[in-house]
Amino acid sequence: MIKNNSGNTFMTVIIIIVGLIILFVIPLMAASNTQDDVSKVAVQSIVAELVQTATTKGKLTKNDYENFTTKLYATGNTYDIQLVHSILTTNPNKGAGDKAGENLTYSVYNTEILDNGIFKDGNNGEYLMNKGDYFGCTVKNTNTTMADQIKGAIFKVIGKDTYTIVGSDYALVVTSGNYSN
Prior knowledge:
By secondary structure, this protein is an alpha+beta fold. It is about 45% helix and about 25% strand. The strands form two sheets. It has a four-stranded antiparallel β-sheet with strand order 3-2-5-6. The chain has a two-stranded antiparallel sheet with strand order 1-4. Helix 1 runs antiparallel to helix 2 (about 60-75) and helix 1 runs antiparallel to helix 4. The longest helix has about 50 residues, at about 5-55. The N and C termini lie far apart (about 95 Å).
């Protein structure tokens, strides 16, 4: 009599595949998720440090920004960096008689802060802010992290505008930046 072992062979292959997933893929996913978590904490800390430095000094310097980007890219990811400076101003026409005008804010972003600020010739590599303004930074990764690649290969859940690593901070400028350090 001849026995048919095709059912046993199929089950053996399935068991081997499940075993490989348990032994390799799950630990790889866990390690890459841990790496993303570490990157998230690092990025938030780096962003908070930049905002704290700029709002305490009242200015963003070329050196501070370059140190920020160096630390940021040392995490092994690429990022979209969005800077915002909300400028406090007064509308003198709004006040009547002896009353002061109303306070207004308007915001400037990357182009004004970077291109027309710290990287513009003649600005001494500084973008100055005034006391009472607000300064903020938001950072989002632009690359697909290893954890996202693994999840995408297994689950097919990755969207185009999915950010794994995000850092954001916004603070009040406490000193006018019209002095040199």
